[in-house]
Specification:
The protein has about 280 residues and is mostly beta strands. It has three helices and 13 strands.
Length: about 280
């Protein structure tokens, strides 16, 4: 089985290398538009919109994940829409959903095992502004914020009790291209979380670091995303090797396994993201 997986990954990488489908320096094709540097965007904690996005650009994302937890499996799904309302300023709306199922071992050994409730997780609203695009240093800097309104569990959801908490996440992004093919990016900021039945705020801090290699002459890439979180004095990190394949000029797919550094309740995971970018034409 292990050899089969290795052969499959090698086959995908070979296909990526031999199938260039998209010119990287897209800003050179339309010189009237403001400078936009093409950066490799992480696939799990993705950006609100491309750094330096041009007005009118938009994107649909559909994602699905399987997370192996101690006694049960979680099936996570999301749909998101992002668009640039003006040059360098992007907005996003996302709705994630989670469904839980006991695994076979828990069913056999623990008849009283309980599950978390299935949930429409939240209504996530986000904004991002790229305040610096430097062609000389091949660097983009951005700031933004996420407001995530958490829904009540589905079995308790009603019109008077729709939301049970809120999460605020201001963030800073720095991205750089190292030559034509290598990309690095850091996404970092605090996470302020409050349940409405509690007056106290919980404070966490996340640092997501990324490095990617983009196949020359294409937008295929391979890389790794390191998601680090310090929450109430507890540190966790998940390593997410990843691959993005461009199927045509408007459609891409990302494949992301997740490997926790320390195995606890959350264990191995697999995430797939389907990305659709409608054609964009704009005159300045």
């Amino acid at each position: 089985m292990r050899n089969s997986w290795l052969f499959g990954w090698l086959l995908l990488v070979s296909w990526m290398i031999t199938t260039p489908v998209f010119a990287q320096e897209e800003q050179e094709a339309i010189p009237l538009l403001p400078l936009k540097i093409l950066h490799a965007e992480p696939l799990y904690i993705d950006l609100i919109r491309d750094l330096g996005a041009h007005k009118g650009e938009r994107e649909w994302n559909v994602g699905a994940a399987l997370v192996d937890r101690k006694d049960y499996n979680s099936y996570e799904m999301l749909i998101e829409y992002e668009w640039a309302v003006m040059d360098r300023w992007g907005l996003e709306v996302e709705v994630p959903v989670t469904i839980h199922r006991l695994n076979r071992l828990a069913r056999e050994e623990n008849a009283n095992a309980t599950l978390p409730s299935n949930r429409i997780e939240s209504l996530k609203l986000a904004t991002q502004y790229t305040f610096l695009v430097s062609g000389k240093y091949q660097t983009s800097l951005a700031v933004g914020g996420i407001v995530e309104w958490e829904f009540t569990d589905l079995n308790r959801l009603n019109s008077r009790n729709a939301f049970k908490g809120v999460l605020l996440n201001p963030f800073f992004i720095a991205a750089k291209r190292w030559g034509p093919d290598w990309h690095s990016l850091i996404y970092t900021g605090p996470r302020l979380h409050r349940h409405f039945y509690d007056t106290n705020w919980q404070l966490g801090y996340e640092v997501n670091t990324n490095i990617h290699y983009m196949i020359p002459g294409s937008r295929h890439f391979i890389g790794v995303e390191l998601n680090k979180l310090l929450d109430e004095g507890h540190f966790s990190m998940i390593i997410r090797p990843q691959m993005r394949l461009m199927l045509n000029e408007t459609l891409m797919v990302g494949i992301v396994p997740g490997i926790p550094v320390k195995m606890g309740n959350d264990r191995m995971s697999t995430f797939v993201r389907l990305i659709y970018e409608p054609p964009h034409r704009q005159k300045h």
